[in-house]
Design brief:
254 residues, mainly alpha, Four Helix Bundle (Hemerythrin (Met), subunit A), 9 helices, 75% helix, globular, glycoprotein, metal ion binding, endosome, iron, transmembrane helix
Length: 254
């Protein structure tokens, strides 16, 4: 029918090859990291470990690197067609290692902001940004521990993996979106705190505000594209012939 042909044509138009998409996404992620580093170096005075605002500057850089870019890379590992054949264990190890690396960067980013606040006598954990950010990190730690227990420990039963897998996938996307929201609210909060003198007021939209607002938009685009890739059926690893799925069907009587 005409409607069916139109649907096929529109689907074909949207059928972007995965690897070029991945290359674009990787470039976008690196751009986000480069921009947050440039913002902190050029406008916010650079980096140090002396407890000053230059110590704080490690916080946005490490959070964007860890919670957004590296976490997004970890989430997309199973979408790479090369991972669909052969043993799954090496890819599980890579997935969990990238996520662990993201977690380590995130903890260092938290340490930077707490160190800055404590040295300046600023209260911790009073803003919506801080509540959302810490909640995201706590959820991330639970997600990693549960994933490690269910998918990497050899004695985890197949029925438990089958039960937990959709939960793990759901919270993977949820944590990424919470990470993006935390980063964007943090950028906005920093601009409100910093741009309030004379010609540099935020409402006057100085160059720093344009740059940081653009960074926020790029982080949102990165997160949305990762979630879209995770949701795309044709990019999901076919599990029907994997040993895990045979075990699951046997246990569940399938």
């Amino acid at each position: 029918s005409l409607a069916h042909r139109c649907h096929q044509r529109s689907t074909a138009m949207l059928d972007v090859p995965f690897l070029p998409f991945c290359a674009f996404l990787g470039t976008l992620g690196l751009l986000c990291v480069a921009m947050v580093g440039t913002w902190c170096q050029h406008w916010r005075g650079g980096f140090s470990l002396d407890g000053s605002s230059r110590t704080f500057n490690w916080h946005p850089v490490l959070m964007v690197m860890g919670l957004v870019v590296l976490y997004g890379a970890a989430a997309l590992i199973y979408r790479i067609p090369h991972t669909w054949s052969g043993p799954k264990l090496p890819w599980k190890v890579l997935h969990s290692s990238l996520a662990l690396g993201a977690f380590v960067l995130t903890v260092l980013g938290l340490a930077a902001v707490f160190s800055f606040h404590n040295s300046q006598g600023t209260p911790n954990m009073y803003s919506l940004h801080s509540w959302m950010g810490l909640g995201t990190v706590l959820l991330f730690s639970c997600q990693w521990a549960a994933g490690f227990g269910a998918f990497l420990l050899p004695w985890a039963p197949a029925w438990l993996r089958a039960l937990y897998k959709p939960i793990h996938v759901f919270f993977g996307s949820t944590i990424l979106m919470l990470s993006v929201a935390s980063c964007v609210s943090g950028i906005n909060e920093k601009l409100f705190f910093s741009l309030k003198n004379g010609t540099m007021q935020y409402k006057l939209l100085p160059a720093e505000a344009v740059f940081a607002n653009t960074l926020g938009l790029l982080i949102i685009i990165f997160g949305v594209l990762v979630v879209a890739a995770l949701a795309r059926p044709s990019w999901k690893r076919p599990d029907s012939d994997s040993p895990d799925s045979h075990q699951v069907r046997d246990v569940l009587g399938g």
